[in-house]
Amino acid sequence: MRGTYVVAGIFAIPAEAVTIAELQGNIPKLHAATKEAKRAWWPRGVSGMFLFPYYLGTHFEPAAIEWVQRRQPYRWAIWHEPVLYDIAQNAVWMRSDYGHFGSAFYPLVFDLYRRGLTLIAERLQKPVPDFINGLPTNTRNA
Questions:
Q1: Which of 2, 42, 111, 117 has the fewest CB atoms within 10 Å of its CB?
Q2: What angle (nearest 5°) sits at the alpha carbon of residue 76, between those of residues 78 and 41?
Q3: Dist. CA 24–CA 46, nearest whole Å
Q4: What is the pLDDT of residue 1?
Q5: Helix, strand, coil fractions of the chain, as percent rounded to 5
Q6: Mapping DSSP to helix (H, G, I), strand (E, B) and coil, where does residue 97 land?
Q7: Is residue 140's pLDDT more than 50?
Q8: Helix/strand/coil (H, E, C) string of 103-137?
Q9: Are 88 and 58 in contact (CB under 8 A)?
């Protein structure tokens, strides 16, 4: 988006299981690491920060899946977009309630999602995840 400086932190985090408390508790660490890697300074409101933690595991609780699929309220210009990647089923759970809020960033967000998902799937020797939010990807792009 013209006139806006966006920083994105993408993290692959091994996790056998993850709780909502852990997802929330990791935000300050992810924010600090992304902020430290930032190369320029822009004021809040002109600068936005996306945190994309990809939790790689073999089983995720329904409560955690439901939590990552909704927009959570955060302070300042931080967008926390966690992804749960079940490596046993090659299935992904991610946010699914996109509305008008932040719509100017959708092309960037979806490109970053795609890049992360593609790299992880390739390491699992798969072209793409087999399922995203319970839907088969044979008719969708990852």
A1: 2
A2: 80
A3: 25
A4: 47
A5: 35, 25, 40
A6: coil
A7: no
A8: HHHHHHHHHHHHHHHHHHHHHCCCCCCCEECCEEH
A9: yes
* Residue 48 neighbours by CB under 8 Å, 6+ apart: 4, 5, 6, 7, 77, 78, 79, 105
Q: What per-residue confidence (pLDDT) applies to 45?
A: 57
The strand pairing partners of 7, in sequence order, are 49
pLDDT at residue 123 above 60?
Answer: yes
The phi-psi region of residue 102 (left if phi > 0; otherwise alpha if psi is between -120 and 50; otherwise beta) is left
Please give the structure tokens belonging to residue 87.
């490596």
The residues near 28 (Cβ < 8 Å, ≥ 6 apart) are: none
Q: Which of 98, 127, 100, 97 is nearest to 114 (CA)?
A: 127
Alpha-helix residue ranges (DSSP H) falling in the chain = 20-37, 62-68, 106-123
pLDDT tens track for 31-85: 899 888 877 666 655 667 889 999 999 989 999 999 999 877 766 668 888 999 9
pLDDT tens per residue across span 3-15: 567 788 899 999 9
- Token pair belonging to 40: 């320029």
